[in-house]
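Continuing from the previous page...

OK, I double-checked the sequence for Probable phosphoglycerate mutase against my notes and this is the correct one:
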Amino acid sequence: MLTPVPFYFLRHGETDWNAAYRAQGRQDIPLNTRGRQQARDAALRLHDCGIRTICSSPLLRARETADIIAQGLGLSINTVQDLQEAHLGPFEGSMPGRWLQRWRGGHTDAGMESHAGFQQRTQAAIHEALTQPGPVLIVAHGGTHAVLQQLTRIIADTHQTNAQALFFQPPDALRSYWSSTLI
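Thanks. Re-ran it with the corrected sequence; updated structure tokens here:
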């Protein structure tokens, strides 16, 4: 179960590897020019959302995105180590393919983090982030978003684009399910 508090989630801005559809995993790839602009745009969209805490993955692309947003909102950043993307071992830098489907299905090649281990680690990191004063903004990765989809049972037909902010609301007296809204 996910801690039932409202929060924001934002996948990092674009990198050159995103633009080339290469799996990044734990590779510490910086934002490209477009990614930095996406982060500045996200900061403007999030300005009046009342965010009190920003929690970020330590990987450069997420941290750089969080830094730009933090500057725009006048906040500091809490780094949550376990918000890192999955360690994909020998497949980092490659195009997603059958190997990714196999990994999600439970097959782990040498040097890779298991999918189940990634899910457990990420869930614990999200819980850690949500113990901070809220509303919290979590800045992380596409894999983190996939775990959030499982935890909230909000399954979108498409993956989350770079620097797209979502507001997650827990179930309440009027609604028995999680909801998310694009910001």
